[in-house]
Write a structure and sequence with these properties.
Blueprint lengths: L1 H29 L35 E4 L3 E4 L4 E6 L6 E2 L4 E9 L4 E2 L5 E2 L4 E8 L4 E6 L6 E2 L4 E6 L3 E4 L4 H5 L8 E3 L8 E8 L19 E4 L1
Antiparallel strand pairs: 1-12, 2-11, 3-5, 3-10, 4-9, 5-8, 6-7, 9-11, 12-15, 13-14, 14-15
């Protein structure tokens, strides 16, 4: 036991320490000899290809609306006076320019005094004016009677035209899709005739009272035309 502790164990420790020292020196000055395997990428990039072709770009805007009659046309008196004659009765079918009623106006004339002092009263000056239809249609209302006094611009009747308009709301997004201002649209009526072209297309603010829309004038939220 004395030999083991005194000679063998210390010698063994010295040998181990010497081996560790040699290994550290070798690593410090010479590095490792193991060559790391170089990394090689394995992925690949595939470029997508789209074949070119010629086609027509379609940008149709479809809106839902309604068919409405065109607004009535007001018949106005064109002379101040009395209604002397009614030519067309309520409900009559008129063409543009057809007579509706006659207005007469009497203007007093100053008396004439002769040389002998005789005073003569001339007859009053009489002017007549025939009020005609400004548009074709049916005389929907006649609001005057014979002998009634009227002034220039008074409404004496209304004419309902035989035409209709397609009106529909149009959103801002749908308006932005319109690259150019359209002049016509195709109208399809449920359970009605075959789709047909509708001209005089207009887009704009809706008039007071809702007379306009996607019809003759259209909506800012609406557009359309007469067909």
């Amino acid at each position: 036991m004395g030999v083991w502790r005194r000679w063998i164990l210390p010698i063994t420790r010295l040998v181990m320490l010497a081996a560790i020292a040699v290994a550290l020196v070798r690593m410090a000055f010479f590095g490792t000899t193991t060559e790391e395997a170089s990394e090689v990428p394995t992925g690949s990039v595939v470029e997508s290809q789209v074949p070119a072709s010629i086609a027509t770009v379609v940008n149709d805007v479809t809106v839902k609306g309604s068919i409405q009659p065109d607004p009535d046309v007001t018949v106005k008196a064109t002379l101040q006076g009395k209604v002397s004659k009614i030519v067309a009765g309520q409900g009559a079918t008129l063409a543009a320019g057809d007579p509706i009623l006659v207005i007469f106006q009497e203007t007093p004339v100053d008396p004439v005094v002769a040389a002998d002092g005789t005073v003569t009263q001339p007859k009053p000056k009489v002017v007549t004016e025939t009020v005609t239809a400004s548009a074709a249609g049916s005389l929907a209302q006649l609001g005057v009677l014979v002998g009634q006094e009227v002034a220039v611009g008074d409404a004496v009747g209304r004419i309902a035209p035989p035409t209709f308009r397609a009106t529909a709301p149009l959103t801002a997004e749908e308006q932005y899709r319109l690259v150019t201002q359209p002049t016509a649209a195709k109208v399809a009526i449920t359970s009605g005739p075959a789709p047909f072209d509708c001209g005089d297309l207009r887009i704009g603010q809706q008039a007071a009272g809702g007379a306009d829309g996607a019809g003759s004038t259209g909506d800012a939220a609406g557009a359309g035309g007469t067909g």
